[in-house]
């Protein structure tokens, strides 16, 4: 009787390791994805309050509400200079949406991620009976949408 | 009978050891990676939750600040109290330099009567943890029915937002200019420097500048900088925080450390303070003529 105790070959064990390694890499990517998701959640949280800021500024100046429309911010816009209240408010929105000067890490300003397809806009519609204001914030390459609207007066 | 029990060769054993070591190292580094990732996520989640919880409350209460229920003066137990004395004694909103970890944080005070018999006197301030900790948390104290009899009055600590680095409340008028001082007695150094005690004429009579400015508050801007409870980064990084502008904002340099920090911003229109009637009275025009307090 010949008793065979061959076990596994080195090739088999290496293939096994490669398969396990691929599994590990997949789990690591999942972990990196969750970290990114957390950062996105923080940005969304900030954006919620910023959209409310825009609405509150419109509500605070109801007679000039129409002047608060046509705000359009991309990654590069900004630097409005005027003494008008609505223009200064738009500058405030612009600064806050890019977190201008809020936090510097190692003397470098930290800014939210912005893609060329992202945009932040306001739309004011004046009707016979009321004036409505809306914000359309698109982030994440335009995929994440934040809409908010109120009757200003 | 032939029995084959030849065992492993030295080369096979060495290869097996190398493979095992690689596997163990991979498992160990993966554990480290996942551990750090979990820590980073949980720390950022804590910051996010804290910000959402505190700002949602703060914005809601700032919108209510200064509201006096039409029946409040009629039904409260303190007869003889008028809107003027309420405005004078209990400021509808007040923000002053108070302290905190870096000595530049604010103390926010609010007052409103939300029904005929109930009023809320609310204070937000940074307080130091007990013991040897150098860190601060945001505390909220609520005193209900401060104008009522003692039996109805009670105070409670309602909110606890951990590890707050800076808390700024910048109050602005309808032109978007910073209002300082907006406080009564016990103002901070910033307010003292801006003439808090100067006497000015208002529709309520002679008031200090700090009291008179309350009715001019049109917008309240809140900056809240939170820190992760535990270290997140591998390398220490220096942080600079700039919340709001002079003369009331903060400008803080934090030495290099491994913590993660986030600043959240909210802006609220204090609709119960800068009311149309205030302008109508000061300009002599009827409310119909002015139609808006922003003209």
Can you walk through the features of this model?
The complex is a heterodimer of chains A (153) and B (295). Chain A has 153 residues and is an alpha+beta fold. Chain A has a domain at 50-151. Chain A contains two helices and six strands. In chain A, strands 1-4-5-6 form a four-stranded antiparallel sheet, with helices on one face. The radius of gyration of chain A is 26 Å and the shape is elongated. The termini of chain A are far apart. Chain B is of the alpha+beta class and 295 residues long. Chain B has one domain (37-290). Chain B has seven helices and twelve strands. Chain B has a five-stranded antiparallel sheet with strand order 1-2-3-4-5. The longest helix of chain B is centred in the first third of the chain and has 55 residues, at 10-64. The radius of gyration of chain B is 28 Å and the shape is elongated. Mean pLDDT of chain B is 84; it is low at 276-295. Strand 2 of chain A pairs antiparallel with strand 10 (237-243) of chain B.
User: Could you tell me the number of beta strands of chain B?
Assistant: 12
Largest sheet of chain B: 5 strands, antiparallel
Strand and helix order of chain B: HHHEEEEEEHEEHEEEEHH
Oligomer: heterodimer
Average pLDDT number of chain B: 84
Discrete helix count of chain B: 7
Rounded Rg of chain B: 28 Å
Largest interface: A-B, 49 and 53 residues
Termini Cα gap of chain B: 111 Å
Order of helix and strand elements from N to C terminus of chain A: HEHEEEEE
- Uncertain parts of chain B: 276-295
Give the helix/strand class of chain A. Answer: alpha+beta
